[in-house]
Amino acid sequence: MTSNLPQDDLPYKVMAIYKFADLPDVEAIQPALAQLCAGGEIKGTLILAPEGINGTVAGTPAAIDALAEWLFETGAFGDRLAGAEVKYSAASEMPFLRMKVRLKPEIVTLRAPEANPAKTVGTYVEPADWNGLIERNDVVLVDTRNDYEVGLGTFSRALDPKTQTFTEFKDYVETHLDPARDKKVAMFCTGGIRCEKASSYLLSRGFEEVFHLKGGILKYLEVVPEAESRFAGECFVFDERVAVGHGLVEGDATLCRACRHPLTAADRADPAYHEGVSCPYCEHDEAKHAAAQERQKQMELAEKRGGAHLGDGAAVAAADARARKRAEAEASRARNAAAAAKAAKR
């Protein structure tokens, strides 16, 4: 396989992979895959399902190369993962805390068995050809991502389904799209995986021509010159970068540490924003504020002790759990006090 790993002298190699394939035997394969990753000190998450594989892992270049050889050539999958969408990158530090090989019903959850990208999928469109397609008047352009992702950036003229989870996309199709009217539908998502399933779903519902952006927004931002780009804003990514712009340069967006909603500069200028505690999207959620305050306190204490760098992720997770328990206990006491006060008035 040809690697697109940057030629930086960095100690870790990162592999992101997804492939829709017929894998009814994943439960039997899981132990061997987990053992291989553990033996190579690889960390990250791989999701296995009867419909395919999805995930991101990191390790030494030799360990990742050995994993790739096992996945695509010598291991229990045989040649079933041939043609997988694979992206390699390099990292100066291990980006993950542990290794998880998870079994799930789907690698991307839609809960629509009729959507099977391994059998039927829409037409892939290369990033270089995307502008010409979406500028056509007879093409309906749909962003398949969730509302908080769309809020940071999207393509001009794209419809926003305003979903909070991908499973809600089915309802959007039912109420807003019509195969008799919408003869050509083009879709896009972050890296391409959701669009594969979404395009398969539309085809199963009788839509005639369905297109999707190959490699997703990330590939588009990587290869299309900014002067020619039709993407406005930043693309949300599911790691500590929060969002990226053209050339995959880290963007300006940050995360609210209370509710995890991505925030633009305008959001951070809102009076409801308090760094590390609250934002305009959670300003009335006292439980989240209490959890955020406790988390910040725990991280500061850990930093003073010099022990925070289990990794900030571990510190955040531990602080979140403690804060959540404390907030739940306080909320329970408040409810009990209110109930007692109400009973006393009777």
UniProtKB/TrEMBL annotation:
Keywords: Oxidoreductase, tRNA processing. Its EC number is 1.14.-.-. Residues 334-346 have a biased composition (Low complexity). This is tRNA uridine(34) hydroxylase. The keyword tRNA processing applies. Residues 135-229 form the Rhodanese domain. GO terms for biological process: tRNA modification. It catalyses: uridine(34) in tRNA + AH2 + O2 = 5-hydroxyuridine(34) in tRNA + A + H2O. Catalyzes oxygen-dependent 5-hydroxyuridine (ho5U) modification at position 34 in tRNAs. GO terms for molecular function: oxidoreductase activity, acting on paired donors, with incorporation or reduction of molecular oxygen. Belongs to the TrhO family. Residues 325-346 are annotated as: Disordered. InterPro entries: Rhodanese-like_dom, Rhodanese-like_dom_sf, TrhO, TRHO_N. The keyword Oxidoreductase applies. PROSITE patterns: RHODANESE_3.
